[in-house]
């Protein structure tokens, strides 16, 4: 579904965050495992069209179309949901209001149409009962589930989640991963993480990255055993 070739990125400070990344990412849940500083966020931001690569290519194939991710930004943004690592929420706004606000930004129609989508998503991520509460009072896990609802606005074909379980307690982590697994049944999901179990528990295919390079990719247990 997503073919990445020779992707490179060197920051102004000289750090080579992406050093010739090649990946073939199929539909379903794909795990991107690597230590802090490996280049995961740089790759995610590049795929989300929030930052330019220096070179290489990324092609997204969906619904019979081939989209050049590095050039067709508008097309990519229509097809992609993104939960960044540093996803912030306005603390004084309710979940319902902020999600509706994001829906407006995504151009999801008039109030009535939006309401159906927004309410459906709040149910899906299990925040329906707290939809009128301010986000400032949400736990880390609730915020991340809100982040998933935001990422699912507009029916994306590919959802990218960057280090979503960092800082969650075990119960919230399980809850969040179960939600991701449900979503992964219908939509391609790239899960970036430094936690081995996030990948082995959830992802049929994965890649290990370090220092801007792909060390290996494949089925998790085989890949980890080969390390
Ligand atoms: P990860 O998500 O795997 O932790 P990152 O992509 O955040 O990795 O970082 C990869 C490398 O690039 C690290 O050495 C990091 O310090 C550096 N880096 C990330 N973002 C920037 C930036 N905006 N400017 C300079 N260096 C950066
Ligand atoms: P911090 O993120 O350190 O709390 P900021 O000044 O970046 O401080 O943000 C102030 C408040 O606004 C924070 O509560 C933050 O979560 C929220 N916020 C910042 N950026 C966004 C954003 N893009 N979307 C939603 N809320 C945001």
From TrEMBL:
All copies of domain ABC transporter, residue ranges: 2-227
Is Nucleotide-binding one of the keywords? yes
Q: Which domain of life is it from?
A: Bacteria
Q: Does the keyword Ribosomal protein apply?
A: no
Query: Which keywords are on file for this protein?
Result: ATP-binding, Nucleotide-binding, Transport
The family note in this entry says:
Belongs to the ABC transporter superfamily.
Instruction: Provide the protein name.
Output: ABC transporter ATP-binding protein
């Amino acid at each position: 579904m997503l073919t990445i070739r020779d992707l490179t990125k060197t920051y102004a400070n000289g750090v080579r965050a992406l050093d010739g990344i090649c990946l073939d990412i199929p539909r379903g849940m794909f795990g991107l495992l690597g230590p802090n500083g490996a280049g995961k966020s740089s790759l995610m931001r590049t795929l989300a069209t929030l930052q330019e690569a220096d070179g290489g290519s990324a092609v997204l194939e969906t619904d019979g179309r081939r989209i050049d991710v590095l050039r067709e930004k508008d097309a990519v943004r229509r097809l992609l949901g993104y939960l960044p690592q540093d996803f912030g929420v306005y603390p004084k706004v309710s979940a319902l209001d902020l999600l509706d606000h994001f829906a407006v930004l995504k151009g999801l129609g008039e109030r009535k149409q939006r309401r159906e989508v927004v309410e459906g998503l709040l149910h899906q991520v299990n925040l329906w009962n707290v939809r009128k509460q301010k986000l400032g009072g949400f736990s880390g896990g609730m915020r991340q589930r809100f982040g998933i609802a935001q990422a699912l606005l507009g029916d994306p074909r590919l959802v990218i989640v960057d280090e979503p379980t960092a800082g969650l307690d075990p119960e919230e982590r399980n809850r969040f991963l179960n939600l991701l697994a449900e979503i992964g049944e219908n939509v391609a999901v790239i899960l970036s993480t430094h936690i081995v179990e996030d990948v082995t528990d959830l992802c049929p295919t994965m890649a290990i990255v370090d220092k801007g390079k792909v060390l290996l990719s494949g089925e998790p247990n085989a890949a980890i055993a080969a390390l």
